[in-house]
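Trying the structure run again after the queue cleared.
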Amino acid sequence: MTPLRLLPWLGVWLMALFALLATPALAQTTLSADNEGAPPPAEEGAPSYEALAELLEDEQSRQALIDLLRNQASSLPAGLETELSPEAAAAGGNVSPEDVSLPRQLAELTSRVVTDIGGQIEQAATVVGDLFTGSGESSSTFDSAAFIQAAINLGIVIGATFALFFVLRRLGKPAFAKVSSWSLNGSGLTPVLRLILSVAIAAVIDFLIVGLAYVGGNLIATFAVGQTGELSTRASLFLNAFLIIELFKAVMRMLFSSHYEGLRLLPISAHEASYWNRWLARLIGMVGYGLMVAVPLVNFYLGASLGQALGTLIMIIAFVYAVSVVLKNRVRLRGNINAIAANATMTASRVSLQLFARTWHLFALLYFLMVFVLTLIRPGDALPFVLFATLKTLAAVVVGLLASTFLTQTIGRRIQLSDDLRRKLPMLEHRLNSYVPNALRVLRTVILVAVVMVILDAWGAFNLAGWYASERGAHLVGNLISVAVILIVSLGIWLALASLIEHKLNPETGTGEPSARAKTLLSLFRNALAIAMVTITGMIVLSEIGINIGPLIAGAGVLGLAIGFGAQKLVQDVITGVFIQVENAMNTGDVVTVGGVTGTAERLSIRSVGIRDLSGTYHIVPFSSVDTVSNYMREYGNHVGEYGIAYRESIDDAIEQLKLAFEDLRSSEEHGFKILADLTVAGVTALADSSVNIRVVIKTTPGDQWGVGRAYNRLVKMRFDEAGIEIPFPHTTLYFGQDKSGSAPPANLRVMQQAFTIDGSPAGQPKSGELVSDDYHDPHKSNSTLENPEHHKPDDEEV
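Done. Tokens:
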């Protein structure tokens, strides 16, 4: 049972208990009214039980107590005198409504509402009938002349107040239009801030107009209508209702401004805003002026029962009107909500809006039904409760929408840094644009949860203030704030350190192009920093939310020890990799030979190296298999070339041509800057089978020895050709043999050219008359021909 429902019953029981304990005084009062059969007064200090027994034995005293209890029960609010269920009353027990089944409670509530409405209609019909027939108590107290005069005076006040209000609204239109134009086309603030400021200014103007109209109506009612200098109760009823209702309508105009696009808080079209503004204004005006003006006047002039019946009729009409509007716009509003859901960026928001589009009319019907029932069964406190709960709900929703829109307009759009900062930190913009949308989703989720909690608190389903004041609520909010601060600080540290590393690696900033060692070590440090930041931040967050991280740390140590024993190869990879990095054995971009693989080191981690060989194949070599690292990119490189000349050539002339080729190479724009020293001629390194080999060494910048060597080989060939120095190449000599006298028979060489046989003759046989040549040569000529095949190249040869 709620405290509100418990208070009247608590008062009844306290009054009954007081009456029972105060039996001597009650008995004395009863005896003074009727002295027959009165018992003697109880002695001072006598037990109260004896006095209570004497009281109950006396019929008149017992009847007086019964009448007192009935009078107290009749003074309770409607609907509270039947707290006990019929089943509980029949059983003779005091059973609270919570112990009664829900269907039974609903049945009792429905029965009570229908009974009350029926009784009000019957009483109202009786009063109206008495007025027209001239019989009854109401007709005798009804003064028609006073009623007509009061109605005329009240009508004058109503007409004058509304006329003044409309004139002031007309005069305020330019101000509204100017503020709306600034909201749409102004500059200097974000659009949502301009909208909020403009709506606030327009609301102040609107409230001032309502206040001026209220003051003017009071002046007219006081000095121009009725008795001068006195404000009648009837005019005061209307003017107070006018102030409250028009202020409420002004709040609605802040949400559904149909004439001014820049003064509308809700993101809907002008047509939709005009429709819902008119509908809400009619509903508010009908219910407000009906309950706050018409019902009190009818109560005063015609009777309380008729006024109560009029209030019930007004609520029924308002309920039917609201239900008809909701059902009429059910499909149309569903389409509008689905269109908004299609543009939502968060999946949760999109799904929630789609579900709300299908069920919004059910929530609206339930809301109006609840207001209708509460107004009927608890007219004293239900309507203010519903009014303030509705206002609180609207305020929470609007503030949530504005906060979400403000975040979207300020940090939701893509962040663009300046050109100078983008040049210095090319990855910072990308990181920010990847972090900000996720942070925006988290903030929107927090706003949604806060709005839901405020709405539940407004309708009494959740005590937000009590929850926050409790230890659990304060602890949860504190933990959430601490976690948010930890994440923000960690993210800021990571952005700062990562940007610093990026600044060091950027060749356009800092000290210029970083060395290969600096690139490798900074890249490894960045990866290690990311792992460390994630681990430390995770541990701190878990500790902050109340999870004991001691077992986690101990478990991680045991797991690391187990991995160390079970993965010795991995540990060897890591240890060897650490020493390779410390000794600067190789860096990214170096040409190395590692584990029998030669190529360019493209990626270096703490465990392995990725090498791309000359054919484009990518190799991953773990450091545990590396015994030797051959680095071709340290300080300088050497092109070592050996050039063979024929035995009949002059060695000095050949060396001279080699020097001339080196001078040509040094003077070239493509390779000249790569040469670090003069040509080194090592001399003759070998007297080979068919050549004399001369070795030279060219010192170049690291990694350029291969390109310089290729260019130098080209120039050497060109110089040797120009000087007529022969570069030996393999020869083949054919010997045909000699007879005993020492003479050699001639070589019978026949060369012929023929066409392919396609008419069925034997393949390889010449056709008749198509022999091209049949030459006979001496042996010397044959030898020379064979030794120099370039001199004679027949299509087909036969020896």
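Residues 380-462 form one domain. Worth checking whether this holds up in the mutant runs.
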